[in-house]
Amino acid sequence: MLLSITLFSQNTIEEDPEIIQNNIDYYIEQSQKDIENFNYFEAQKTLDEALDLAQNSDNKKSIGLIQSIKGKLHLIIEEEDDAIKALNSAIEMQRIINDNKNLGRSYKTFGDVYMAKQNIYQALDSYRAAKSKFEEEELEADLAETLLAEGNAYIALKNYRKARELTEQAVAISRKENLLNTLSSALVNHGKIYNILNDHQKALDFTKEGLEIAKANSFKTIENEGFLVLSDIYESTNDFKLATNYLKAHIKLSDSLRAVKRANLSPEKRIQFLINDQIESNKKQQAELEEANSKNDLSTLISILSVALITILSLLTLSLYKNNNIRLKTNNMLHKKNNELIVAKEKAELASKTKANFLSTVTHELRTPLYAVTGLSNMLLDEDPKPEQIQHLKSLKFSGDYLLTFINDILQINKIEANKVEVESEPFNLKKKINNIVLALNNSALDNNITIHFEYDKDLPENFIADQLKISQILINLIGNSIKFTKDGDIWIRVYKIGQENDIYNLRFEVEDNGIGITKEKQDNMFESFSQGSIQINRKYGGTGLGLSIVKGLIEILKGKIYLQSELGKGTTFSLKFL
Protein backbone atom coordinates (compact mmCIF):
# COMPACT_ATOMS: atom_id res chain seq x y z
CA MET A 1 0.00 0.00 0.00
CA LEU A 2 2.83 2.36 0.90
CA LEU A 3 4.54 1.61 -2.44
CA SER A 4 1.39 2.53 -4.38
CA ILE A 5 1.08 5.84 -2.55
CA THR A 6 4.73 6.67 -3.27
CA LEU A 7 4.34 5.96 -6.98
CA PHE A 8 1.18 8.03 -7.18
CA SER A 9 2.86 10.94 -5.45
CA GLN A 10 5.88 10.79 -7.80
CA ASN A 11 3.71 10.72 -10.95
CA THR A 12 1.74 13.69 -9.67
CA ILE A 13 4.97 15.74 -9.30
CA GLU A 14 6.18 14.77 -12.77
CA GLU A 15 2.89 15.81 -14.38
CA ASP A 16 2.53 19.06 -12.39
CA PRO A 17 2.24 21.84 -15.07
CA GLU A 18 3.97 24.37 -12.82
CA ILE A 19 7.04 22.14 -12.37
CA ILE A 20 7.16 21.39 -16.10
CA GLN A 21 6.96 25.12 -16.87
CA ASN A 22 9.76 25.82 -14.38
CA ASN A 23 11.94 23.22 -16.11
CA ILE A 24 11.19 24.72 -19.54
CA ASP A 25 12.00 28.23 -18.27
CA TYR A 26 15.26 26.97 -16.76
CA TYR A 27 16.31 25.36 -20.07
CA ILE A 28 15.44 28.53 -22.02
CA GLU A 29 17.42 30.72 -19.61
CA GLN A 30 20.38 28.30 -19.72
CA SER A 31 20.37 28.24 -23.54
CA GLN A 32 20.52 32.03 -23.69
CA LYS A 33 23.51 32.04 -21.31
CA ASP A 34 25.21 29.44 -23.52
CA ILE A 35 24.63 31.63 -26.60
CA GLU A 36 26.12 34.66 -24.82
CA ASN A 37 29.18 32.55 -23.89
CA PHE A 38 29.55 31.23 -27.50
CA ASN A 39 28.61 27.66 -26.43
CA TYR A 40 26.36 27.22 -29.46
CA PHE A 41 26.08 23.43 -29.56
CA GLU A 42 25.31 23.22 -25.83
CA ALA A 43 22.61 25.84 -26.37
CA GLN A 44 21.20 23.78 -29.23
CA LYS A 45 20.99 20.67 -27.04
CA THR A 46 19.35 22.59 -24.17
CA LEU A 47 16.74 24.06 -26.53
CA ASP A 48 15.96 20.59 -27.94
CA GLU A 49 15.32 19.31 -24.39
CA ALA A 50 13.11 22.30 -23.66
CA LEU A 51 11.19 21.74 -26.91
CA ASP A 52 10.56 18.06 -26.00
CA LEU A 53 9.08 19.11 -22.64
CA ALA A 54 6.95 21.84 -24.25
CA GLN A 55 5.62 19.53 -26.99
CA ASN A 56 4.83 16.70 -24.54
CA SER A 57 2.82 19.13 -22.39
CA ASP A 58 1.30 20.89 -25.47
CA ASN A 59 2.61 24.24 -24.18
CA LYS A 60 2.09 26.34 -27.33
CA LYS A 61 3.53 29.57 -25.94
CA SER A 62 6.79 27.86 -24.93
CA ILE A 63 6.96 26.00 -28.26
CA GLY A 64 6.74 29.30 -30.15
CA LEU A 65 9.34 30.98 -27.90
CA ILE A 66 11.81 28.06 -28.17
CA GLN A 67 11.48 27.93 -31.98
CA SER A 68 12.09 31.69 -32.10
CA ILE A 69 15.30 31.34 -30.03
CA LYS A 70 16.39 28.40 -32.22
CA GLY A 71 15.93 30.66 -35.26
CA LYS A 72 18.17 33.27 -33.64
CA LEU A 73 20.79 30.61 -32.84
CA HIS A 74 20.77 29.29 -36.43
CA LEU A 75 21.32 32.86 -37.65
CA ILE A 76 24.35 33.28 -35.35
CA ILE A 77 25.97 30.07 -36.66
CA GLU A 78 25.19 31.12 -40.26
CA GLU A 79 22.50 28.51 -40.99
CA GLU A 80 20.00 30.97 -42.50
CA ASP A 81 17.73 28.35 -44.13
CA ASP A 82 17.33 26.46 -40.82
CA ALA A 83 16.68 29.81 -39.12
CA ILE A 84 13.82 30.54 -41.55
CA LYS A 85 12.23 27.10 -40.86
CA ALA A 86 12.40 27.59 -37.08
CA LEU A 87 11.04 31.15 -37.27
CA ASN A 88 8.14 30.10 -39.53
CA SER A 89 7.19 27.45 -36.93
CA ALA A 90 7.45 30.06 -34.15
CA ILE A 91 5.34 32.66 -35.97
CA GLU A 92 2.66 30.11 -36.88
CA MET A 93 2.28 29.10 -33.20
CA GLN A 94 2.44 32.67 -31.85
CA ARG A 95 -0.26 33.86 -34.26
CA ILE A 96 -2.61 31.09 -33.11
CA ILE A 97 -2.34 32.07 -29.42
CA ASN A 98 -1.94 35.86 -30.01
CA ASP A 99 1.45 35.98 -28.27
CA ASN A 100 2.18 39.45 -29.69
CA LYS A 101 5.23 40.10 -27.53
CA ASN A 102 7.18 37.06 -28.76
CA LEU A 103 5.64 37.34 -32.24
CA GLY A 104 7.26 40.77 -32.56
CA ARG A 105 10.62 39.30 -31.54
CA SER A 106 10.28 36.54 -34.14
CA TYR A 107 9.54 39.15 -36.83
CA LYS A 108 12.60 41.12 -35.73
CA THR A 109 14.85 38.03 -35.97
CA PHE A 110 13.31 37.29 -39.39
CA GLY A 111 14.42 40.77 -40.46
CA ASP A 112 17.97 40.02 -39.25
CA VAL A 113 17.97 36.78 -41.30
CA TYR A 114 16.88 38.63 -44.45
CA MET A 115 19.62 41.22 -43.83
CA ALA A 116 22.17 38.40 -43.64
CA LYS A 117 20.85 37.11 -46.99
CA GLN A 118 20.99 40.67 -48.47
CA ASN A 119 17.20 40.76 -49.01
CA ILE A 120 16.92 44.34 -47.72
CA TYR A 121 13.29 45.09 -48.66
CA GLN A 122 12.02 41.83 -47.10
CA ALA A 123 14.04 42.71 -43.99
CA LEU A 124 12.30 46.11 -43.82
CA ASP A 125 8.87 44.45 -44.06
CA SER A 126 9.77 42.19 -41.11
CA TYR A 127 11.12 45.10 -39.03
CA ARG A 128 7.93 47.13 -39.65
CA ALA A 129 5.79 44.16 -38.56
CA ALA A 130 7.94 43.81 -35.41
CA LYS A 131 7.64 47.56 -34.62
CA SER A 132 3.86 47.35 -34.85
CA LYS A 133 3.73 44.57 -32.23
CA PHE A 134 6.22 46.27 -29.88
CA GLU A 135 4.30 49.57 -30.04
CA GLU A 136 1.05 47.72 -29.22
CA GLU A 137 2.67 45.99 -26.23
CA GLU A 138 4.72 49.10 -25.21
CA LEU A 139 7.99 47.15 -25.29
CA GLU A 140 10.50 50.02 -25.42
CA ALA A 141 13.69 47.91 -25.34
CA ASP A 142 12.59 45.73 -28.25
CA LEU A 143 11.36 48.80 -30.15
CA ALA A 144 14.77 50.50 -29.79
CA GLU A 145 16.60 47.41 -31.12
CA THR A 146 14.24 47.18 -34.09
CA LEU A 147 14.59 50.89 -34.94
CA LEU A 148 18.37 50.43 -34.91
CA ALA A 149 18.15 47.39 -37.20
CA GLU A 150 15.77 49.24 -39.54
CA GLY A 151 18.27 52.11 -39.67
CA ASN A 152 21.00 49.65 -40.72
CA ALA A 153 18.77 48.46 -43.56
CA TYR A 154 18.37 52.03 -44.84
CA ILE A 155 22.15 52.51 -44.63
CA ALA A 156 22.47 49.47 -46.92
CA LEU A 157 20.01 51.18 -49.30
CA LYS A 158 22.07 54.42 -49.05
CA ASN A 159 19.00 56.32 -47.77
CA TYR A 160 21.04 58.08 -45.11
CA ARG A 161 18.42 60.68 -44.14
CA LYS A 162 15.90 57.97 -43.22
CA ALA A 163 18.64 55.96 -41.49
CA ARG A 164 19.54 59.02 -39.39
CA GLU A 165 15.89 59.59 -38.40
CA LEU A 166 15.43 55.98 -37.22
CA THR A 167 18.78 55.89 -35.40
CA GLU A 168 17.92 59.14 -33.57
CA GLN A 169 14.72 57.47 -32.31
CA ALA A 170 16.73 54.42 -31.17
CA VAL A 171 19.21 56.67 -29.31
CA ALA A 172 16.40 58.61 -27.59
CA ILE A 173 14.59 55.47 -26.35
CA SER A 174 17.86 53.81 -25.27
CA ARG A 175 18.88 56.88 -23.23
CA LYS A 176 15.46 57.07 -21.60
CA GLU A 177 15.36 53.35 -20.70
CA ASN A 178 19.13 53.07 -19.95
CA LEU A 179 19.59 50.35 -22.61
CA LEU A 180 23.39 50.47 -22.73
CA ASN A 181 23.98 47.82 -25.42
CA THR A 182 21.45 49.32 -27.83
CA LEU A 183 22.55 52.88 -26.98
CA SER A 184 26.22 52.06 -27.65
CA SER A 185 25.45 50.44 -31.00
CA ALA A 186 23.05 53.23 -32.03
CA LEU A 187 25.61 55.96 -31.23
CA VAL A 188 28.29 54.23 -33.33
CA ASN A 189 25.79 53.88 -36.20
CA HIS A 190 24.88 57.55 -35.78
CA GLY A 191 28.55 58.43 -36.15
CA LYS A 192 28.80 56.34 -39.34
CA ILE A 193 25.78 58.13 -40.86
CA TYR A 194 27.02 61.64 -39.97
CA ASN A 195 30.42 60.80 -41.47
CA ILE A 196 28.75 59.81 -44.75
CA LEU A 197 26.76 63.08 -44.60
CA ASN A 198 30.11 64.96 -44.12
CA ASP A 199 29.29 66.29 -40.63
CA HIS A 200 32.58 64.99 -39.23
CA GLN A 201 32.46 66.68 -35.81
CA LYS A 202 29.07 65.15 -34.94
CA ALA A 203 30.30 61.84 -36.34
CA LEU A 204 33.30 61.93 -33.96
CA ASP A 205 31.20 62.94 -30.93
CA PHE A 206 28.60 60.19 -31.38
CA THR A 207 31.11 57.46 -32.23
CA LYS A 208 33.41 58.26 -29.30
CA GLU A 209 30.46 58.25 -26.87
CA GLY A 210 29.26 54.89 -28.22
CA LEU A 211 32.78 53.45 -28.06
CA GLU A 212 33.23 54.54 -24.42
CA ILE A 213 30.00 52.75 -23.42
CA ALA A 214 31.07 49.63 -25.36
CA LYS A 215 34.50 49.55 -23.68
CA ALA A 216 33.04 50.11 -20.20
CA ASN A 217 30.61 47.20 -20.63
CA SER A 218 32.79 44.84 -22.73
CA PHE A 219 30.51 45.03 -25.79
CA LYS A 220 33.32 43.71 -28.01
CA THR A 221 31.39 43.52 -31.30
CA ILE A 222 30.21 47.14 -30.93
CA GLU A 223 33.71 48.23 -29.87
CA ASN A 224 35.09 46.61 -33.03
CA GLU A 225 32.57 48.47 -35.22
CA GLY A 226 33.44 51.70 -33.41
CA PHE A 227 37.13 51.32 -34.30
CA LEU A 228 36.26 50.94 -37.99
CA VAL A 229 33.92 53.96 -38.00
CA LEU A 230 36.56 56.13 -36.28
CA SER A 231 39.13 55.03 -38.87
CA ASP A 232 36.75 56.11 -41.67
CA ILE A 233 36.04 59.47 -39.96
CA TYR A 234 39.72 60.30 -39.47
CA GLU A 235 40.44 59.30 -43.06
CA SER A 236 37.69 61.70 -44.20
CA THR A 237 39.34 64.51 -42.17
CA ASN A 238 42.80 63.63 -43.58
CA ASP A 239 44.17 62.56 -40.17
CA PHE A 240 45.77 59.48 -41.71
CA LYS A 241 47.84 58.52 -38.66
CA LEU A 242 44.78 58.13 -36.40
CA ALA A 243 42.86 56.50 -39.26
CA THR A 244 45.60 53.87 -39.58
CA ASN A 245 45.80 53.31 -35.79
CA TYR A 246 42.05 52.69 -35.47
CA LEU A 247 42.05 50.46 -38.56
CA LYS A 248 44.80 48.34 -36.99
CA ALA A 249 42.79 48.12 -33.74
CA HIS A 250 39.74 47.01 -35.77
CA ILE A 251 41.75 44.32 -37.60
CA LYS A 252 43.25 43.01 -34.34
CA LEU A 253 39.88 42.79 -32.53
CA SER A 254 38.22 41.29 -35.64
CA ASP A 255 40.81 38.51 -35.65
CA SER A 256 40.16 37.85 -31.95
CA LEU A 257 36.36 37.72 -32.37
CA ARG A 258 36.64 35.49 -35.44
CA ALA A 259 38.96 33.13 -33.54
CA VAL A 260 36.44 32.75 -30.69
CA LYS A 261 33.56 32.12 -33.10
CA ARG A 262 35.58 29.66 -35.21
CA ALA A 263 36.67 27.77 -32.09
CA ASN A 264 33.04 27.31 -31.05
CA LEU A 265 31.80 26.44 -34.56
CA SER A 266 34.67 24.19 -35.69
CA PRO A 267 33.94 20.70 -37.10
CA GLU A 268 35.95 19.15 -34.21
CA LYS A 269 33.71 20.90 -31.68
CA ARG A 270 30.59 19.63 -33.48
CA ILE A 271 31.86 16.02 -33.60
CA GLN A 272 33.01 16.14 -29.95
CA PHE A 273 29.55 17.40 -29.00
CA LEU A 274 27.88 14.53 -30.90
CA ILE A 275 30.22 11.96 -29.31
CA ASN A 276 29.59 13.30 -25.78
CA ASP A 277 25.86 13.31 -26.44
CA GLN A 278 26.04 9.70 -27.66
CA ILE A 279 28.07 8.65 -24.59
CA GLU A 280 25.51 10.24 -22.23
CA SER A 281 22.72 8.51 -24.12
CA ASN A 282 24.56 5.18 -23.90
CA LYS A 283 25.07 5.56 -20.14
CA LYS A 284 21.40 6.34 -19.64
CA GLN A 285 20.30 3.33 -21.70
CA GLN A 286 22.77 1.06 -19.90
CA ALA A 287 21.46 2.17 -16.49
CA GLU A 288 17.89 1.45 -17.60
CA LEU A 289 18.92 -1.95 -18.92
CA GLU A 290 20.72 -2.81 -15.67
CA GLU A 291 17.60 -1.90 -13.71
CA ALA A 292 15.50 -4.08 -15.97
CA ASN A 293 18.09 -6.88 -15.64
CA SER A 294 17.06 -7.55 -12.06
CA LYS A 295 13.47 -8.30 -13.08
CA ASN A 296 13.80 -11.34 -15.37
CA ASP A 297 16.19 -13.36 -17.51
CA LEU A 298 14.70 -12.07 -20.75
CA SER A 299 15.54 -8.54 -19.70
CA THR A 300 19.10 -9.69 -18.98
CA LEU A 301 19.46 -11.03 -22.50
CA ILE A 302 18.02 -7.83 -24.00
CA SER A 303 20.36 -5.76 -21.83
CA ILE A 304 23.42 -7.70 -23.00
CA LEU A 305 22.41 -7.40 -26.64
CA SER A 306 21.63 -3.71 -26.25
CA VAL A 307 24.95 -2.98 -24.56
CA ALA A 308 26.70 -4.89 -27.32
CA LEU A 309 24.82 -2.91 -29.95
CA ILE A 310 25.61 0.37 -28.18
CA THR A 311 29.27 -0.61 -27.96
CA ILE A 312 29.33 -1.38 -31.68
CA LEU A 313 27.66 1.95 -32.45
CA SER A 314 30.14 3.77 -30.23
CA LEU A 315 33.06 2.08 -31.95
CA LEU A 316 31.54 2.92 -35.32
CA THR A 317 31.17 6.57 -34.25
CA LEU A 318 34.78 6.61 -33.08
CA SER A 319 35.89 5.03 -36.35
CA LEU A 320 33.99 7.64 -38.35
CA TYR A 321 35.57 10.34 -36.23
CA LYS A 322 39.06 9.03 -36.96
CA ASN A 323 38.29 8.72 -40.67
CA ASN A 324 37.17 12.34 -40.69
CA ASN A 325 40.35 13.58 -38.97
CA ILE A 326 42.22 14.03 -42.25
CA ARG A 327 39.34 16.00 -43.75
CA LEU A 328 39.07 18.13 -40.60
CA LYS A 329 42.80 18.86 -40.59
CA THR A 330 42.53 19.91 -44.22
CA ASN A 331 39.61 22.18 -43.32
CA ASN A 332 41.67 23.66 -40.49
CA MET A 333 44.47 24.41 -42.91
CA LEU A 334 41.98 26.04 -45.28
CA HIS A 335 40.55 28.13 -42.41
CA LYS A 336 44.07 29.19 -41.46
CA LYS A 337 44.96 30.11 -45.04
CA ASN A 338 41.66 31.94 -45.42
CA ASN A 339 42.41 33.99 -42.31
CA GLU A 340 45.89 34.76 -43.62
CA LEU A 341 44.35 35.90 -46.91
CA ILE A 342 41.86 38.12 -45.07
CA VAL A 343 44.68 39.74 -43.08
CA ALA A 344 46.75 40.15 -46.25
CA LYS A 345 43.75 41.69 -48.03
CA GLU A 346 43.17 44.14 -45.19
CA LYS A 347 46.86 45.05 -45.13
CA ALA A 348 46.80 45.57 -48.90
CA GLU A 349 43.73 47.79 -48.60
CA LEU A 350 45.47 49.78 -45.86
CA ALA A 351 48.58 50.13 -48.02
CA SER A 352 46.44 51.22 -50.97
CA LYS A 353 44.66 53.83 -48.85
CA THR A 354 47.98 55.10 -47.49
CA LYS A 355 49.42 55.34 -51.01
CA ALA A 356 46.38 57.21 -52.30
CA ASN A 357 46.42 59.61 -49.37
CA PHE A 358 50.18 60.18 -49.75
CA LEU A 359 49.87 60.93 -53.47
CA SER A 360 46.93 63.24 -52.91
CA THR A 361 48.74 65.18 -50.16
CA VAL A 362 52.08 65.44 -51.97
CA THR A 363 50.61 66.50 -55.32
CA HIS A 364 48.41 69.12 -53.66
CA GLU A 365 51.44 70.52 -51.83
CA LEU A 366 53.49 70.62 -55.06
CA ARG A 367 50.85 72.43 -57.11
CA THR A 368 50.95 75.64 -55.03
CA PRO A 369 54.64 76.51 -55.64
CA LEU A 370 54.32 75.42 -59.28
CA TYR A 371 51.45 77.83 -59.83
CA ALA A 372 53.75 80.53 -58.43
CA VAL A 373 56.58 79.50 -60.82
CA THR A 374 54.39 79.53 -63.94
CA GLY A 375 52.68 82.75 -62.89
CA LEU A 376 55.97 84.56 -62.22
CA SER A 377 57.50 83.32 -65.48
CA ASN A 378 54.47 84.67 -67.39
CA MET A 379 54.77 88.02 -65.62
CA LEU A 380 58.50 88.27 -66.36
CA LEU A 381 57.93 87.44 -70.03
CA ASP A 382 55.34 90.24 -70.22
CA GLU A 383 57.75 92.82 -68.73
CA ASP A 384 60.17 93.09 -71.72
CA PRO A 385 63.06 90.97 -70.42
CA LYS A 386 66.54 91.19 -71.92
CA PRO A 387 66.96 89.12 -75.10
CA GLU A 388 69.39 86.73 -73.40
CA GLN A 389 66.79 86.11 -70.60
CA ILE A 390 63.85 85.26 -72.86
CA GLN A 391 64.98 81.71 -73.66
CA HIS A 392 65.64 80.96 -69.98
CA LEU A 393 62.23 82.26 -68.97
CA LYS A 394 60.52 80.25 -71.71
CA SER A 395 62.36 77.12 -70.53
CA LEU A 396 61.27 77.84 -66.96
CA LYS A 397 57.64 78.34 -68.05
CA PHE A 398 57.69 75.17 -70.15
CA SER A 399 59.12 73.12 -67.26
CA GLY A 400 56.56 74.54 -64.83
CA ASP A 401 53.64 73.88 -67.21
CA TYR A 402 54.92 70.34 -67.88
CA LEU A 403 55.25 69.53 -64.17
CA LEU A 404 51.82 71.04 -63.44
CA THR A 405 50.23 68.92 -66.18
CA PHE A 406 52.04 65.83 -64.85
CA ILE A 407 50.85 66.47 -61.27
CA ASN A 408 47.27 67.09 -62.44
CA ASP A 409 47.38 63.77 -64.34
CA ILE A 410 48.60 61.96 -61.20
CA LEU A 411 45.78 63.53 -59.17
CA GLN A 412 43.23 62.47 -61.80
CA ILE A 413 44.56 58.87 -61.85
CA ASN A 414 44.53 58.80 -58.05
CA LYS A 415 40.88 59.96 -57.94
CA ILE A 416 39.84 57.39 -60.54
CA GLU A 417 41.58 54.51 -58.71
CA ALA A 418 40.02 55.61 -55.39
CA ASN A 419 36.50 55.74 -56.98
CA LYS A 420 36.17 59.42 -56.04
CA VAL A 421 35.05 60.59 -59.49
CA GLU A 422 31.28 61.01 -59.90
CA VAL A 423 29.19 61.38 -63.05
CA GLU A 424 27.63 64.85 -63.33
CA SER A 425 25.09 64.87 -66.17
CA GLU A 426 23.80 68.12 -67.67
CA PRO A 427 22.27 69.30 -70.98
CA PHE A 428 24.78 70.36 -73.68
CA ASN A 429 25.27 70.55 -77.46
CA LEU A 430 27.53 67.63 -78.40
CA LYS A 431 28.32 68.78 -81.94
CA LYS A 432 29.20 72.29 -80.77
CA LYS A 433 31.30 70.89 -77.92
CA ILE A 434 33.41 68.78 -80.32
CA ASN A 435 33.76 71.72 -82.73
CA ASN A 436 35.09 73.84 -79.85
CA ILE A 437 37.62 71.12 -78.96
CA VAL A 438 38.78 70.96 -82.61
CA LEU A 439 39.17 74.76 -82.71
CA ALA A 440 41.13 74.73 -79.44
CA LEU A 441 43.56 72.08 -80.74
CA ASN A 442 43.77 73.39 -84.31
CA ASN A 443 46.88 75.55 -83.69
CA SER A 444 48.79 72.52 -82.41
CA ALA A 445 47.60 70.58 -85.47
CA LEU A 446 48.76 73.33 -87.86
CA ASP A 447 52.20 73.30 -86.20
CA ASN A 448 52.50 69.66 -87.35
CA ASN A 449 50.89 70.39 -90.76
CA ILE A 450 47.81 68.31 -89.85
CA THR A 451 44.25 68.69 -91.18
CA ILE A 452 41.46 67.75 -88.75
CA HIS A 453 38.21 66.36 -90.27
CA PHE A 454 34.98 66.17 -88.22
CA GLU A 455 32.05 63.93 -89.30
CA TYR A 456 28.76 64.00 -87.34
CA ASP A 457 25.95 61.49 -88.04
CA LYS A 458 23.08 63.38 -89.71
CA ASP A 459 20.53 61.14 -87.89
CA LEU A 460 21.84 62.24 -84.49
CA PRO A 461 20.34 65.15 -82.52
CA GLU A 462 22.85 67.73 -81.33
CA ASN A 463 21.61 68.18 -77.75
CA PHE A 464 22.19 65.50 -75.11
CA ILE A 465 22.18 65.07 -71.33
CA ALA A 466 25.49 63.59 -70.19
CA ASP A 467 28.75 64.43 -68.40
CA GLN A 468 30.16 66.87 -70.96
CA LEU A 469 33.31 67.58 -68.90
CA LYS A 470 34.46 63.95 -68.93
CA ILE A 471 33.57 63.49 -72.62
CA SER A 472 35.61 66.63 -73.42
CA GLN A 473 38.55 65.37 -71.36
CA ILE A 474 38.48 62.00 -73.18
CA LEU A 475 38.39 63.59 -76.65
CA ILE A 476 41.07 66.19 -75.82
CA ASN A 477 43.43 63.41 -74.65
CA LEU A 478 42.80 61.23 -77.72
CA ILE A 479 42.98 64.06 -80.29
CA GLY A 480 46.02 65.52 -78.53
CA ASN A 481 47.73 62.11 -78.75
CA SER A 482 46.98 61.91 -82.47
CA ILE A 483 48.41 65.42 -83.04
CA LYS A 484 51.55 64.56 -81.07
CA PHE A 485 52.30 61.40 -83.08
CA THR A 486 51.28 62.61 -86.57
CA LYS A 487 53.30 64.81 -88.93
CA ASP A 488 52.06 66.13 -92.30
CA GLY A 489 48.90 64.06 -92.13
CA ASP A 490 45.19 63.93 -91.25
CA ILE A 491 43.03 63.25 -88.21
CA TRP A 492 39.39 62.14 -88.52
CA ILE A 493 36.86 62.56 -85.71
CA ARG A 494 33.57 60.71 -86.23
CA VAL A 495 30.37 60.39 -84.19
CA TYR A 496 27.79 57.71 -85.15
CA LYS A 497 24.51 56.43 -83.79
CA ILE A 498 24.66 52.64 -83.23
CA GLY A 499 21.33 52.22 -81.47
CA GLN A 500 18.34 54.00 -79.92
CA GLU A 501 15.63 53.21 -77.37
CA ASN A 502 13.14 56.06 -76.87
CA ASP A 503 15.32 59.09 -75.97
CA ILE A 504 18.37 56.98 -75.06
CA TYR A 505 21.07 56.90 -77.77
CA ASN A 506 23.98 54.48 -78.10
CA LEU A 507 26.93 56.35 -79.64
CA ARG A 508 30.23 55.41 -81.24
CA PHE A 509 33.11 57.91 -81.32
CA GLU A 510 36.19 57.40 -83.49
CA VAL A 511 39.51 59.27 -83.47
CA GLU A 512 41.66 58.12 -86.42
CA ASP A 513 45.06 59.35 -87.57
CA ASN A 514 47.68 58.33 -90.15
CA GLY A 515 50.61 58.91 -87.80
CA ILE A 516 53.43 56.62 -86.65
CA GLY A 517 51.15 53.85 -85.32
CA ILE A 518 51.75 51.40 -82.43
CA THR A 519 53.45 47.99 -82.52
CA LYS A 520 51.38 44.87 -81.74
CA GLU A 521 53.55 44.16 -78.68
CA LYS A 522 52.82 47.56 -77.12
CA GLN A 523 49.06 47.61 -77.81
CA ASP A 524 48.19 45.26 -74.93
CA ASN A 525 49.44 47.62 -72.23
CA MET A 526 48.79 51.03 -73.82
CA PHE A 527 46.07 51.85 -71.26
CA GLU A 528 48.27 51.20 -68.22
CA SER A 529 49.70 54.09 -66.19
CA PHE A 530 53.12 55.40 -67.36
CA SER A 531 52.93 53.21 -70.48
CA GLN A 532 54.43 54.63 -73.72
CA GLY A 533 55.17 53.28 -77.17
CA SER A 534 58.92 52.82 -76.63
CA ILE A 535 61.99 54.50 -75.11
CA GLN A 536 62.77 56.11 -78.49
CA ILE A 537 59.23 57.52 -78.80
CA ASN A 538 59.39 58.82 -75.23
CA ARG A 539 62.64 60.64 -75.96
CA LYS A 540 61.38 62.07 -79.26
CA TYR A 541 57.81 63.05 -78.37
CA GLY A 542 57.85 63.31 -74.55
CA GLY A 543 54.73 62.86 -72.41
CA THR A 544 53.96 61.19 -69.07
CA GLY A 545 52.25 58.02 -70.28
CA LEU A 546 49.16 58.80 -68.14
CA GLY A 547 46.79 60.19 -70.80
CA LEU A 548 45.38 56.89 -72.09
CA SER A 549 45.12 55.50 -68.54
CA ILE A 550 42.99 58.52 -67.60
CA VAL A 551 40.90 58.06 -70.77
CA LYS A 552 40.17 54.41 -69.97
CA GLY A 553 39.29 55.24 -66.34
CA LEU A 554 36.86 57.99 -67.38
CA ILE A 555 35.23 55.78 -70.03
CA GLU A 556 34.66 53.01 -67.46
CA ILE A 557 33.07 55.56 -65.10
CA LEU A 558 30.70 56.53 -67.95
CA LYS A 559 29.89 52.80 -68.51
CA GLY A 560 31.57 52.81 -71.92
CA LYS A 561 34.24 50.77 -73.70
CA ILE A 562 37.34 51.73 -75.69
CA TYR A 563 38.95 49.76 -78.54
CA LEU A 564 42.34 50.23 -80.22
CA GLN A 565 43.34 49.39 -83.81
CA SER A 566 46.80 50.31 -85.01
CA GLU A 567 49.51 49.35 -87.47
CA LEU A 568 53.07 50.59 -87.26
CA GLY A 569 53.74 53.29 -89.87
CA LYS A 570 50.08 53.50 -91.00
CA GLY A 571 48.24 55.11 -88.11
CA THR A 572 45.92 54.46 -85.16
CA THR A 573 42.15 54.38 -84.56
CA PHE A 574 40.56 54.68 -81.09
CA SER A 575 36.87 53.67 -80.98
CA LEU A 576 34.60 54.52 -78.03
CA LYS A 577 31.16 53.05 -77.38
CA PHE A 578 28.71 54.56 -74.89
CA LEU A 579 25.68 52.33 -74.33
From TrEMBL:
Provide the top EC class.
transferase
The stretches annotated as TPR repeats are 144-177, 184-217
Molecular function GO labels: phosphorelay sensor kinase activity
What the entry lists under InterPro entries is as follows: HATPase_C_sf, HATPase_dom, His_kinase_dom, HisK_dim/P_dom, HisK_dim/P_sf, Sig_transdc_His_kin-like_C, TPR-like_helical_dom_sf, TPR_rpt
UniProt keywords (A-Z) are:
Kinase, Membrane, Phosphoprotein, TPR repeat, Transferase, Transmembrane, Transmembrane helix
User: What CDD domains has UniProt attached to this entry?
Assistant: HATPase_EvgS-ArcB-TorS-like, HisKA
Please give the catalytic activity noted in the UniProt record: ATP + protein L-histidine = ADP + protein N-phospho-L-histidine
The residue ranges crossing the membrane are 301-321
Q: Which Pfam families match?
A: HATPase_c, HisKA, TPR_8
Q: Does the keyword Kinase apply?
A: yes
Gene3D superfamilies assigned: 1.10.287.130, Histidine kinase-like ATPase, C-terminal domain (3.30.565.10), Tetratricopeptide repeat domain (1.25.40.10)
Concerning SMART domains, the annotation shows: HATPase_c (SM00387), HisKA (SM00388), TPR (SM00028)
The record's EC number reads 2.7.13.3
Keyword Phosphoprotein present in the record's keywords: the answer is yes
Q: Which residues form the Histidine kinase domain?
A: 361-579
Q: Which PANTHER family match?
A: TWO-COMPONENT HISTIDINE PROTEIN KINASE
- Could you tell me what this protein is called? histidine kinase
Q: Which organism is it from?
A: Jejuia pallidilutea
